[in-house]
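Journal club prep — side note

Before the paper discussion, L.F. wants everyone to see what a predicted structure for a comparable chain looks like in token form. Sequence:
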Amino acid sequence: MRDRWDRWASGLLEIGWLGCVVGIPLLLAPRLALPFTAGKVLPFRILAEVLGLLGLLRWLRRPRMRPEPLTLAVVAYAAVMALATVLGRNPADGFWGSYMRLFGLFTQLHGWVLFLVVAAYLRTERQWRRLLVAVAFTSILVGAHALIQWRGLERRIVSDLLGAAAFHWEAAAIEQYRPFCCCRGGSAGRVCCCRACSRWC
């Protein structure tokens, strides 16, 4: 029974960290203001919490503690970051992160939990190879997207894939800053400001 539980737990843990490596970077939320960042935080937190709970349950069945030097370094880094957050100018913002990105200490703690799970349960060469393949696959896709951005084809390609109405985040972001164009002065600034007022009022 214990061997069966260990096999199931090992499989679920590996599926989880491979999902973090492949699925989270490729998530896209076209209806949000930050489609490439805002939609990733909550799924990553949920997945890291599930993996952390599963890893803890497996560890409780066979408790052992022999951390590697790299693990100790990550724990020390987490402690320094926590101390910096508590003693910072705004501990609440430092812990939760900004409203748009939510990338504060709380999200970083989830990343450290993911690291501890991988460090504790990645044991075989096959697991290592699968992780390397997943990282390489995701890196190729992200690199291809960077090349598309570099060539200026992103808006046309993504609009064809997701629909023009679902992917006007870039235009919306530009519109948010149009009222500030009048601060620069000049005819272009006045026209820009008038367009913003006529649209928003």
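L.F.'s comment for the group: The chain has a mean pLDDT of 78. Keep this in mind when we get to the figures.
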